[in-house]
Design a protein that fits this description.
Blueprint: E1 2-6, H1 13-24, E2 29-36, H2 43-50, H3 61-65, H4 71-74, H5 79-106, E3 111-117, H6 121-131, E4 136-140, H7 154-161, E5 166-169
Parallel strand pairs: 1-2, 1-4, 2-3, 4-5
Helix pairs in contact: 1-5, 2-5, 6-7
């Protein structure tokens, strides 16, 4: 079984890990994912945090980052901005997802992690679930940031619209 844990960092590691490892079983896998809302005006702040990126010699953004998969990706700015955003997403993946993935691996499970940019959190979670062929999505009942008021918004939408079962941890 493939378990997808979708978190904004507020899910309790001690609670999520036993559920994920039990659901995944000995032959299964767990993917820990987070969705980050990134206002594109934030790029200027990212430049301050990460410094200028190496110049890119390409004729089009698609040549640098590949063909866009969605309308949200088409809104990206020039390639230097995309590199900053990718670096920021990598940092968020480490900050938010790594503790859970490491705890699952320490418990003997197979786990990886990823971070995605997006405004419609539940849609991105369902895209990730489809992409990794998840059998179940695990979310927390209390969230922060994009997941705030989870059962009133994101969690409720996932429960109603997800093509796979959704387990809400309280």
């Amino acid at each position: 079984m493939h378990v997808l844990i979708a978190t904004d960092g507020s899910i309790d590691v001690g609670q999520a890990v036993p559920f994920a490892t039990a659901l995944a079983g000995d032959d299964g896998k767990t993917t820990v994912a987070t969705v980050v809302k990134i206002p594109r005006r934030l790029v200027q702040d990212l430049r301050s945090a990460y410094g200028d990126q190496a110049p890119v010699n390409v004729d089009s953004d698609a040549e640098y980052v590949g063909q866009p998969q969605s309308a949200a990706q088409m809104e990206r700015s020039f390639p230097g901005d995309d590199a900053l955003v990718d670096q920021y997403l990598g940092d968020k993946r480490v900050e938010i997802c790594r503790p859970i993935a490491e705890a699952i691996r320490a418990a003997g499970g197979d786990a990886d992690s990823l971070a995605r940019e997006g405004d419609e959190v539940e849609d991105i979670i369902m895209e990730i679930a489809d992409e990794v062929d998840a059998d179940v999505v695990v979310v927390g009942a209390k969230g922060k940031n994009a997941f705030q008021g989870l059962l009133g918004s994101t969690g409720a939408k996932l429960v109603r619209r997800s093509p796979v079962p959704v387990l809400v941890l309280r």
